[in-house]
Amino acid sequence: CVLCGRTDDCPEKYGEKRTYEKHNLTVHYYCLLMSSGIWQRGEEDEGVDGFLIQDIKKEVNRAAKLKCNICRKKGASVGCVAPKCKRSYHFPCGIQKECIFQFMEDFRSYCWEHRPVQKFLDKESGGTSQCTICLDLVEQLPAYNVLKSPCCKNAWFHRECLQYQALSAGIFFFRCTVCSNMDKFQKEMLRMGIHIPERDASWELEENAYQDLLQCYQHCDIRRCLCKKGRDYNEPDSKWEIKRCQCCGSRGTHLACSSLKSWEQNWECVECRSIFAKSGNYSKQKKRSLATSEKTDGTCLLEEPSPKCPRQSPGSQRSFLLQSPKIMCHNSLSPCLHLELSASNRLTMSLSPLMPDRNLSLRKKHLRKQKREVSNILKDLKLQVNTKTTRLNINEKNIWDSALKGFRQRNFSPTNTIEIQFTNCKNKSKTHTSVAKLRFFKLLMLHLQNSSLFEGSSAKNLSLDFQAVKENLYFEAGKMIAVSLVHGGPAPGFFSKTLFNCLVYGPENVKPDLEDVADVDVAQTIKMIKYTNNLSSLQSTIYNCYEFLAAAGCLRPITDLSDKNMLVNDLLIHHVIKRIKSPLESFSQGLKTLGVLEKMQAHPDAFSSIFCRKLERLSAEAVCDLFIIRSSSDVNKVKGADFWIGYLKDVESGESAVTLEDILLFATGSSSIPPMGFDPEPTLKFLHMRYPIGNRLLNCLELPITKTYEEFKKKMEFTIKNTLKVERE
Fold this sequence. Notes:
Residues 1-115 form the PHD-type domain. By secondary structure, the protein is an alpha/beta fold.
């Protein structure tokens, strides 16, 4: 290079190395950009990207008279722009000496003494964090090789990682890896010397990079393909047309090979059908049973509703089924036809005592709708979770410390499948099933509710714990809540409306109430000001509280009794919101894990139902709707369903030794319904057996077929009560 004198060809460090044999010229692009005595006087296609050849030669002659302050050799073309600084150096020498080169505007350069630095708060410095690009540890220090995101409080990077990311992503895709902010992030990185090329991302420039996505799958995967021209033969509008699986699109079949008609689109491959079978989704079987019943003389339960119920349109079949126990005929199709309408009536009527008011209140309906919406959102977020497993060793007696240690271990990732292993004092394994994961998250939410991170009686706000801020515990708490929701755990349920609104709408848009003040003395002082009846009493109260008001920054001239309202408002905003600004920012960053906070902000009404409300007691109706009853044509099993519904009614009314929560705990290992719901979906089976069995691995409750209801109830009471008693002991 004619400017730096080096032969290195390293585009990442020095830019593209260009040689012009006609002019006997070789130059690094970055050396040219950063040289202090040259400007682009030509068009883009003239010289070297607008730098004229004669100007480059003049700059070489100018630099030949300057000695580098680093290597002491001639040819230093780059100079520090700081006033009164006369240091000059080669571009590569400046990189070695940790100078800053700004690839924007006037392409300024700063020497090692005058370079711009990022400002850190004392509480932010020290400790280690994880570089969100390479995932290695990075020290939280104001150093040249360490950069902090301007938009995310807990995002730290290695300079080298950021530079490689910028070169790959280009100006259109380079953004914060945590919050995806682009404008603020790019502005700060350019100021700190990260070069962001003005071009498209490297993956967008690769020729035919997405060519594979444009190809449709056309191959018959049926075990015995009937087409004589081969599995890849496809002739549209004929029996040899290839149809792809409607779910995955990566398997196909000839119409003739699967006995399909040309108008049938709902073909599913073996792999997808097996997944549906495991998840309890038998929608395909339902459709086929309806189609089959049309060709028979009998009447199918799924085809014709009770005479007492209005006739259901095809689009409302689902709602009809949801109003009664979820009955699924999974043996043969024809026995289903022998279930007479009287049996259907008995099942439907047995539900009526559980729902005395068919027209539920609007509030209750709205709450159900919100919970369904949250469940669907969380299921979508769970698609980020992969099959790679991370095991957390949890000490039940020290749940917080062991959880914190697990979440901070190097190989922990929120997108990994979490496996919980409870340990006793001898560190011997107790359990590591899905039940253990539910229990872990439940204990963790309970600990957070009672921890020093929150304050208040029932509806809680964030507290100000300086030690917790220093140790970044608010971020970890937010992260744990987000992970619990996406991994099927419980919601906190103890947030105040004020805290929730601060997270969703921003603290500047929230007006707190007196009930949000947890400190009794502070609350009493605010009450004294709020309920003062005359101006002299108000001024006297303010005089007595002078130090408190001064510390809060709320001193204001009082000339009228109405001024107390603004003063009270200022005090509430200071104590409830401004005082906890740092914990709130950190907590919000933690809640952004797996995209939870973003969804909260997009669906605030739905998420408030799980963040700001305590778990309601289970109802017989809720438990009945939760379990899918799998029945066949056996009338005894329909009678068993009647016994089950009657038993739930007795338990709800207190005529039983167990509770509805006990029943759910016996079947699933959880005494409450998680916001996401259960996976797999709880099922109910009636079998010829002596006592009921709760299969928590499959969330399946197997119930005995009995002759009388009294016998059924006795067996249920005995088994559930004694099983849970042994577990508690």
